[in-house]
């Protein structure tokens, strides 16, 4: 295969960052068959997405491993792993870029990277090629970082109780409170590596040729318009899971349901006798709920006896009440990992208890499943929860400490009560907007075409 263009793609290998970026690259590869996409990511993260059974379905995507910075036998926590990886960057990426250029016989003409990896801006500048930044999350979470300076200034001068202070002066964020913001917004108080990374990103993003988001314009037109004024191109191209190409590579196998249902979640849902009668619970890929949260949820489920499917890591099971698994076996199922997209899309699911990671929220919207938000003090989870509850009104939150009675109240509200009807209707309307965005003449499709145009005729904007 002879290629005309060569584009480098740099992934951030932690959390769920790399998956949506790969989905985007797959779509671009299908649309632009004479461009080679070199996908650079760590061995472990690549290994979690590809294996002997699942390979890249496009000839023009070549997957490369970059060094993760970890010494042999490293056994540390998530944050230490991120620190090591970032200290090894960008040298680790540069080495592999050179190798990819040598193997392809083509110099890179554009760099696409996870927005966190803003050193890609310098690598692109050095090569005289444009940089496209991918923010795999929502527009509101980008906005709070872009507006950090204004927020800090306002907070410094306000007399109001700080945590209750709302961001009424930031377009589209009038419902957001100071206490909802990610810790990374406060570099002074929290000089973490992640905070520094995001701060660097904010400085560099205006230099990118385009900022691409896994979001859709109509979810927050005011924020979209505000952000459009900050960047050369702001391109919402999501929800990526609703697009032309499968989100998970595994879906490209001949019988995806059988492969995805190794744990029997979908057949368990088939056996529920009423539509919208079961709850799905998940805290995403790396968050661990506290013992109190697990206990409160478990006690609520036992009291209500609502069928539940709970994606729970094995080490969390020790937080469950004694004998819970046996007592709930007739109406509950716990698995270490669920095929979440298909689970949420199943007609038996009536509510989603979620930690409010952005992918989970998008998947919930696309499946029309109202949410009960149990966010952790991490990343954008609390901020996302605020938007779900107060801006889009497609779920409920639980104020303060999670208890059994608050959980029961929330479940009744979103699943059964008359008072919860507007929530169920709102999520239906938002899903329609998401679907419209990815139609042939929809905003996300138009933005995607613009992106394709930019990367197909790359010039520094
Ligand atoms: N997920 C899944 N099965 C599970 C738990 C999570 O497939 O049992 C997927 C889920 O569909 C979503 C991702 O993992 O795409 C979690 O991403 P999110 O942004 O919600 O949370 P994070 O893991 O980044 O905190």
- In angstroms, what separates the terminal alpha carbons? 30 Å
Classify the secondary structure makeup into a structural class. Answer: alpha/beta
Mean pLDDT: 92
Task: Describe the main β-sheet briefly.
Answer: 7 strands, parallel
Estimate the strand proportion.
5-15%
Number of helices: 19
Shape: globular
Helix content range: 40-55%
Could you say which small molecules are bound to this protein? Answer: uridine-5'-diphosphate
**Rg measurement, Å:** 22 Å
Which runs of at least 5 residues are low in confidence (pLDDT < 50)? 244-256
Total number of strands: 13
What's the arrangement of strands in the largest beta sheet? 3-2-1-4-5-6-7
Descriptive key words:
single chain; 461 residues; alpha/beta; 7-stranded parallel sheet; 6-stranded parallel sheet; 19 helices; 42% helix; 13% strand; binds uridine-5'-diphosphate
